[in-house]
Please model this.
Amino acid sequence: MLAKKINAKLKRAYYYFGFNEVVSYDEVMEHANLLKSLPNDESLAAKINGYADDIEAFFKNDDEKKADSEFSADFAKDEPRKSWEHYTENFPEDIFEGGLEPVDDELEEATEIEPVVDDDELDDASEIASVEEDDLEDVGEIEAIDEEDIGEIEAVDDEDGEIEIVEIEEEEPVVPAPPIQPKPNKTKIYLNGELKGYCDDPVNFTREMREKRRSGGISHEMNITYYEDNDEIYIFNDPGRARRPLIIVENGAPLLKDEHLNKIANGKLKWDDLIDGGLIEYLDAEEEENSYIAMNLADLNEDHTHLEIDPATMLGICAGIIPFSDHNSSPRNTMEAGMTKQALGLYVSNYALRTDTRAHLLHHPQTPIVKTRIIDSTNYDLRPSGQNFVVALMSYEGYNMEDAMVINKGSLERGLARSSFFRAYDTSEKRYAGGQVDKFEVPDKNIKGYRSEEAYRNLDEDGVVNPESYVESGDVLIGKTSPPRFLEETGFGTVADKRRETSVTVRHGEKGIVDAVLLSETVEGSRLAKIRVRDTRQPEFGDKFASRHGQKGVVGLILSPEDVPFTEFGVVPDLIVNPHAIPSRMSIGQVLEMVAGKAGCLEGERVDATPFNQTLEDEIKQQLINNGFESAGCESLYSGVTGERIDAEIFVGVAYYQKLHHMTTDKVYARSRGPVQVLTRQPTEGRAREGGLRFGEMERDCLIAHGAALTLKERLLDESDKYQAIVCDNCGMLAVFDKNKNKKYCPICGDVETYPVEISYAFKLLLDELKSLCIFPKLELGDKA
Amino acid sequence: MDDIEMKVMETITQLNEEENLDIDFPESYIDDLSKAYVGKDLSDDELKELIRKLKQAYDRAHVEAGEAVGTVAAQSVGEPGTQMTMRTFHYAGVTELNVTLGLPRLIEIVDARKDIATPTMDIYFDEERRNDEEFVRTLANQIGKSTINDILKDFNLNYGTMEVEAVLDSKKIEEKRLDREEINAVIEKTFKKSIINGDELIISSAKSDKSESKFEIRELRLLADKVRDLQISGIKGIGKVIIRKDDKEWIIHTEGSNLKEILDMDGIDHVRTTTNNIHEIGEVLGIEAARQSIINEAQNTLSEQGLSVDVRHIMLVADIMTSEGHVKSIGRHGISGEKSSVLARAAFEETGKHLLNASIRGEVDDLTGIIENIIIGQPIPLGTGSVGVKMDYKKE
Model:
């Protein structure tokens, strides 16, 4: 019994000092002393002392030591800690009082102190913050796998200037390297950007290093470059470099021979074997500077060091998606490489299980008819991000001027370019100091900040929305109340009355159907609710689309299917693009894609349009002719309105179009009146805050230049932060209006004559700030001129 | 022509009196009117009509009262300014001569920089001498900086005797039209221990006797540099000189500028010779010349970049910069920093400084400017805000 009591006491003492298991007396005391020096709260110090005394007593008293075996087993079992309560249930209440909490939980507590007011308006900022957190995690992971088998290269420079490469054992303790003596007239060697040593024969050194890499002596992830002009060697083996494979060439002949290719075909050789065998190596951007790469086998000469596996391998994932990119002007390819990242598609296959804050999903993604080999090798077909559109290249009543495009309403109604937008909302029942917690519930009417009853109509009894209910902006998704922000005297009255409403509502300007409701638990064990709202997006005016050739544009007209021009065969285009988009931009790839796409459709097979390959032109033309079409891809179209034949031959083809995630619904905005900032009383900024559109300095200058004095005043004062100030006639300071006495008076001069003056609130603020700087701004009033 | 001009002037005065017009044409208009009067063989009535029409057109072209000319000028210069390439250096026309152009130059002009990056001069010659190549070359060598290095044939350091041995090149001296006597005088004056023997020069250090080993090789080298860099001709502030034959005449371009001394020389065309240093023009030729120089420089800089800005905008800038008799900059230390209104100054730059000083002095802002009125929220005294209603006291 006594032993148990002692044990419990000791356990508490140990726990207090942050130990999970029994450790030596000295260690505990050291920790206790450290803690003692921290707080200046006397009672706390006394408590720490008390615990320290307990431990001391335990170790001193041999009789009681027998208790040791019994209790230490509890800790020493090496079990993972069950929960926080598991250890604390027997603890006296006072242990968590005061500033110091159990050491383990201290950090967690600190981070969640007081949940800041939900500013859902700052959505971008908060999203960025969350992304950064993710990134940090990634970085951590990368660091963990950082050390390669190459080890660390240390250049030891002995007297005769020879370089030795010493592999440092991993176990070896890290000793700070002595500063490297500068040695002029020798080649500097940098490892991952850090000066590591010098060498006398840079050419042979780099050659040897490369040979070692090819023979497997060093990791194939190492790249070495010798810059002759500044006589420096750069070695890189760190993560994050873009590298690409090339066939090694020696004496004008590629090392990769037909025999290897045969073996590959038979499955006897794998990619890794080619690298291990030193036939193919990866170069980074730096080492490319030291190499002479032949594009084709035919170009090879004695000087070449490498041969492209295929010229198209120099393209990355994004640029590799572009068919016939060798026929496009380079800016268009660059643009497309950027835009394809914005295309909607099947971004993950487990989207139904995920709660991304925002996600777009294309409803019926298609594999492109015109593809490239890069598309094959990146498995683009498994998660495509576009659809094959029948495109006519013609103007249509000016509705496709300036890169706008006319889209067929019939196609849209059949699901073309339709997408879903998912937004996840989440919140949890947070715990606060003093045992207070948030609560999911349908808030009571007399709660502080109660919204209209209407806003809560979708909530179930538990305070969370039901799936498949239609919600609009302002509707509550998770009803939640929080304890009052400042603990006031709780002696009388009910605390519940003072609880705040902190529900999660649908964002301003958004709507949708509740797609999924997830109830879970946070790390701390409090209830967590995640709600995903889905919104179907049928293309509308202003939605952005792009082909794979940097030809982007917005929908300018959604044309009824009966009005869309049709071909002799009754084919109706999905999209009408203006021909002016082509010549000045020289995106011939688009023209070729359309013809190839058309031929592919007619033949029922996909077309390979990998850049830098032999021309398919004749083949495609023949295919079109075989199917009864004109070889150039032009057709006669008939007006959908009058049925007359359109005089000009219209170029019609099939192109892969991508819907980009810039959509009108996310951007349309206007404001006439709305919220103002508290400090300046000027309109808020930004769509999410229902803000105004800034009438900036240059806009102001324009009105000045036009002499539009009153328009200017209207913009800057009347429609912004107009304020009626009362000015004391005597001292020129702002006077005060006493509402109770219905009387105006000057705080300095007392009961004197005052006049109302129309000024901007910002100016009033300026006057106030001047006063706070001990500058006395007087307003001398005069009659209006 | 004078008679005709008198006639035109008389007609104008007559019209002013008879029809109560207020005609006050600039000189060039009178000139044009006179030409038209003679050239078109106008009758007196026709001349009158012409003057009336001209008056109408002239009035129409006038800027109206209350027009925000300053803002318009700022926008008219500022907008093309955004298109200016940031490229600083450019070799324009003249070979080897490097002149600051583009935005940096424009900023330099507007800031009224005292030390401009690349001062240059264009020197023209009077009528008799503008085709006299010999004269121009002589003058160019007088103006341009020449050092011993430019006229050397051979140069040696004698480590045995610790002397600098140099041989001058008579040909080069001739080419440069330099005076042998003068060169010798300069050398003798600078280097106390020098022996001049025709083309040959032997110079030893003045301060120590070489018998002692104190005189080190380093010192000899320094002496050699000194010898080579000794300036034997040229005007202060002017470096390299480039002679160029224009269509008809010889022109000298210089690197560096010294307008005052150049204008003092014989054979110079005092009208066309100029520098790109505005302050120098202001000092030598007066403030009106400086104003014209600002206009020329700014417009040349803009037009060189293929931008055309109406001169009148630039003229306004130049007027304001020179209105107080010396060249002031636009900006903190000039126009903007000297505005009468506290609020306007505080709104521009150095807010704290202006507010503090104003509060110390008890400054009063009479709210006559644009910025002040925008701050307090009144209609600005410009354009439609420049008019008011006044009570007519006569009518009861």
